[in-house]
Amino acid sequence: MPVITNIADLKRLHERRTPRMFYDYAESGSWTEQTFAENTSDFARIRLRQRIARDMGGRHTRSTMLGQEVAMPVALAPVGLCGMQSADGEIKAARAAEKFGVPFCLSTMSICSIEDVASHTSAPFWFQVYTLTDDDFMKRLFDRARAANCSAIVITVDLQIMGQRHKDLKNGLSAPPKLTPKSIANMMTKIPWGLEMLQTKRRFFGNIVGHAKGVSDPSSLSSWTAEAFDPALNWERIAEFRRWWGGKVILKGILDPDDAKAAADVGADAIVVSNHGGRQLDGALSSIRMLEPILDAVGDRVEVHLDSGIRSGQDVLKALAMGAQGTMIGRAFVNGLGAMGEAGVTKALEVIQKELETTMALCGEKRLSDLGRHNLLVPKNFSGDWA
To answer: Could you tell me what percentage of the chain is helix, strand and coil, using 3-state DSSP and rounding each to the nearest 5?
Structure first.
């Protein structure tokens, strides 16, 4: 067993173990991948203030997210196709999150269904939905989430139209994978992955196949997907979804102060500052750059989380010190899942918590609630002086 000390170690194992189309799905962005790259490089531009001669005894990383006590303010973001990174991947990730004490968010485009995850866990989890046109499907999706005791709905608001992701198109991304000479040749080098997949019945989009009208098998899924997303989405429609759900709502995909204010106006309990991991509008600013303008716009009207670009506990600390009340990780936990299954997700969380706790101490703080701009060295005009 290799020694795992950071997320990059898990990423290397993930690449070796998982078929290329699924690894690329997790590790790529849209178009030129400028925003995908800057999500991480902009975190690196923020430096930390080292402080010494302070009592660091009794420190911890505990906090709350959306009123829930957490071991650290890091939720597992909704990521599609986790069940293709590792057999039954969403179940594995949800169990790891529950044992660790952090929120897990299941994607609508998961391989394991809401019911699958609920039957293998005991802690309530969050469920992510897209803004689809099919009212009947959406209402039944909310009913299924309620029956599974989901504690919040995460509405993804930045996917009305899908960004062009070159690697996914060239790889012919699908679940289960299409059998082409190229994909077969690649999968033949991933024997442990293939043996796991042969032992599970969960290889399709479990929340859609058999639930959406006209989608009785994977072959009919692509036509449904092409028609399902709502290009006419507006704030009234988001408010309608909020009424249908009736519980806590998080809006994910906010990258503009005006949209953040509109999200608060529509009654969101939390927003996630996110550019979809650089997979939608290439050329948009990184999430960490847009955090402060959004915080300035909404004040304390809504809880603000940050997603996109977090690869370490230091990144988590920087986001919290900049004012975020919580964070989400996607690729970091998927690297663990693809590398080592449930144990890999746990390892990713352990790595991030250790980095967060150690960095907090070296910055002279014992509690996450004490973090602030005083712990950082931020470049002037970091958020940009744009015309």
So the answer is: 45, 10, 40
Helix 331-362 to helix 89-100 angle, to the nearest 10 degrees? Answer: 20
Q: What is the pTM of this model?
A: 0.95
Burial of 195 (0-12, 13-18, 19+ CB in 10 A): exposed
Tokens of 335: 């690297």
Give pLDDT tens digits for 275-311: 999 999 999 999 999 999 999 999 999 999 999 999 9
* CATH architecture of the domain with residue range 7-377: Alpha-Beta Barrel (3.20)
Amino acid sitting at position 268: A
Provide the annotated active-site residues. Answer: 276
Assign 232 a pLDDT band (cuts: 50, 70, 90): confident
Extract the tokens encoding 51: 């402080």
Task: For residue 24, count other CB atoms closer than 10 A to its CB.
Answer: 18
pLDDT per residue as tens digits for the range 31-84: 999 999 999 999 999 999 999 999 889 999 999 999 999 999 999 999 999 999
CA angle 95, 352, 349 (to 5 degrees): 10
Nearest CA among 10, 17, 2 for reference residue 311: 10
* Token representation of residue 254: 């906010």
CB atoms within 10 A of CB 182: 14
Residue 174 has pLDDT above 90, yes or no: no
β-bridge mates for residue 70, sequence order: 63
Residue 110 · residue 82 · CB < 8 Å: yes
